[in-house]
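Need residues for this backbone.
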């Protein structure tokens, strides 16, 4: 592993570590960035030409902190939520990436801490990457954890020599109106929960949302507040989930869900945004819900 403190020293190590995951999920490029509010950025990537295009041949970039506050977004969302020079930069940058690397889609996963943002961007030539992510999100979560563990020492070294310094960034121009993540077009309207016995149980999207929050120990009132529905509706949805899982109490429902193949993290970006600095951290991300049959 590289020791001189340059991002380029670690390309081979990142490529070797990510190879199996990327091949299994038809991903060509993985870009990890540790982004600070002033624009400083520590970067790891498996692709030298990608680094050259975005950091060597590009003298100045938007700081990237404010546009990465959501736990999930696509590159097109960057364009939609920005304006002015920032928006123009992302339009041209995305065009260059697609032309240079023949990528068709990319999406970003972020974790927000008090001092910085961890962001992973996955680029692919596949048109089904979002569907792949939604169906295998536990695999992506494990990859991100393993990546952080593997390159902990490398990131400590790179902190002393960030690939992007604050002087090479400019302030972002963000639209003031709320931006809605348009991911519902890609999501299933029915969620299939797999019981410990291997039985597939069909939950509507609303039922899945409710039991996801229920598993986080949210009360009926809290679930109603987050989903913007009435407490009575929450009670009804939980009772329907109990009936489908053939249990008769909330404690039994909790146990049944806990031991089933129910991917809690599938709903993280819809229900529990962790944007730092928001005035009301309880405000759930507003997403147009699809009409689902019951």
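Answer:
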């Amino acid at each position: 592993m590289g020791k001189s403190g340059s991002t380029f020293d670690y390309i081979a190590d990142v490529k070797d570590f990510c190879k199996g995951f990327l091949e299994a999920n038809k991903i060509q490029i993985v870009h990890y960035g540790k982004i600070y509010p002033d624009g400083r950025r520590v970067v790891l990537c498996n692709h030298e030409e990608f680094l050259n295009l975005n950091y060597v041949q590009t003298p100045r970039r938007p700081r990237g902190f404010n546009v990465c506050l959501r736990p999930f977004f696509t590159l097109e969302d960057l364009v939609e939520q920005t304006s002015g020079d920032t928006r123009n930069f992302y339009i041209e940058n995305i065009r260059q990436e697609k032309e240079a690397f023949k990528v068709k889609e990319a999406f970003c996963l972020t974790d927000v801490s008090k001092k910085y943002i961890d962001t992973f961007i996955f680029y692919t030539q596949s048109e089904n990457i979002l569907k792949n992510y939604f169906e295998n999100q536990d695999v992506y979560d494990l990859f991100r954890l393993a990546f952080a563990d593997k390159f902990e020492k490398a990131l400590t070294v790179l902190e002393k020599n960030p690939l992007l310094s604050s002087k090479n960034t400019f302030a972002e121009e963000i639209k003031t109106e709320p931006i809605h993540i348009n991911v519902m077009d890609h999501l299933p309207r029915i969620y299939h929960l797999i019981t410990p016995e291997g039985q597939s149980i069909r939950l509507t999207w609303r039922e899945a949302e409710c039991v996801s929050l229920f598993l986080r120990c949210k009360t009926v009132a809290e679930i109603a507040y987050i989903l913007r529905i009435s407490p009575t509706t929450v009670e009804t949805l939980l009772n329907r989930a109990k009936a489908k899982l053939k249990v008769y109490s909330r404690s039994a429902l909790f146990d049944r869900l806990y031991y089933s193949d129910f991917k809690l993290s599938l709903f993280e970006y819809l229900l529990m945004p962790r944007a730092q600095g928001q005035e009301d951290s309880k405000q759930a991300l507003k997403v147009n819900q699809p009409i689902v049959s019951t």
